[in-house]
Amino acid sequence: VSDDTAPVTLRERSLDAVADHIQAGGAKNVLVMTGAGISTAAGIPDFRSKDTGLYANLARLNLPYAEAVFDIGYFRDHPEPFYILAQELYPGKFYPTISHVFIALLAAKGLLFHLFTQNIDTLERRAGVPGDKIVEAHGSFATQRCIDCKTPYPDDKMHEHVLAGNVPRCEECNGLVKPDIVFFGEALPDEFREKAHYAAAADLVLIMGTSLSVHPFAGLPGMIREGVPRVLFNMERVGGLGARSDDVLELGDCDAGIRKLADKLGWRDELESKWREL
Ligand code: APR
User: Fold this and answer.
1) Sign of the torsion angle spanned by Cα atoms 22, 26, 28, 34
2) 173 annotated ligand binder
3) Disulfide check for 39: which of 44, 54, 209, 219 has CB 3.0–4.6 Å away?
4) Is 254 annotated as a binding residue?
């Protein structure tokens, strides 16, 4: 049921109308929310896609259930499965996609209010999105520390251990070392709680490549004011998007949807060359 009483910003539910909204200066505070779906084109599997998702391909780790690999309780007793996965996912060998670069282009044009990402691959940062505009809601591989005494662990030693597939131990108390990724059972970074209210200040929202299945991140779209267009770039419809009069569903490959929007904005050449220059 769509809520027809809300003020309507877009003339129609289309990328053309979104592009007009941006060109008319109606979107100066664009909020972007991303998930693993924008990194699949970079070669990093997402979590829940039927055959290709990470959770469908962890059988070799003999986990009690797929998400255990990111569960803090399970990690304490069995850190090996996570470190087998970390060896495959560790940043450095992957490359930002067109979708990552589009977010950096929004920032370069002074239109990006903030990016909330669930991804731990740091590809948005690598694409050129300014660090002070990114909230990594589920942490990232960028830093690591002991899960017992919290002592930070040296980056170079971490790289060595992860690439060798070893489990790093704290040099102070011999506790397990874990990257600052938010595991199930851990609190999200304070920055997420402090900035989640930014959702209410956005005048356009782009939601890209996420199943919106993990809270509290999945609660962000519901915090967007009525009348603010929410555009979903995703293979499948998720999170109740489409229920509001100003929701736009661009279902399919996110890079293709983003290229379509870039074409309508006249930003396509700039986008492609920015991507090639990375
Ligand atoms: N283009 C568009 N959509 C895509 C593409 C693509 N190329 N590839 C995948 N998708 C979509 C999938 O259809 C799915 O809806 O992206 C979504 C990815 O969903 P998930 O795999 O659940 O990833 P995400 O939403 O980021 O997971 C959230 O769950 O496991 C935890 O902490 C982990 O941050 C992660 C959180």
Assistant:
1) negative
2) yes
3) 44
4) no
pLDDT digits (tens, 9 = 90+) for 240-277: 999 999 999 999 999 999 999 999 999 999 999 999 99
> What distance in Å separates the CA atoms of residue 27 and residue 24, rounded to the nearest whole number?
8
Least Cα distance to 262 among 126, 103, 43, 134 occurs for 103
d(CA 182, CA 164) in angstroms, rounded, equals 23
Q: What is the pTM of this model?
A: 0.95
Which distant-in-sequence residues (6+ apart) come within 8 Å of 34 by Cβ?
99, 103, 115, 116, 117, 118, 119, 124, 207, 208, 209, 210
Residue nearest to atom 14 of ligand 1 (CA): 211
Structure ipTM = 0.99
Q: What pLDDT score was predicted for residue 113?
A: 98
138 is catalytic: yes
In whole angstroms, give the CA distance from residue 259 to residue 203.
Answer: 21
Question: Which residues face 234 on adjacent strands?
Answer: 251
Identity of residue 242: G
From 21, 114, 138, 161, active-site residue: 138
Q: What's the rounded mean pLDDT across residues 29-57?
A: 95
Mutate to test the pocket of ligand 1, among 69, 116, 207, 211 (most ligand atoms within 8 A of CB): 211
pLDDT computed for residue 151 by the predictor: 98
**Residue 92 confidence class, pLDDT cut points 50, 70, 90:** confident
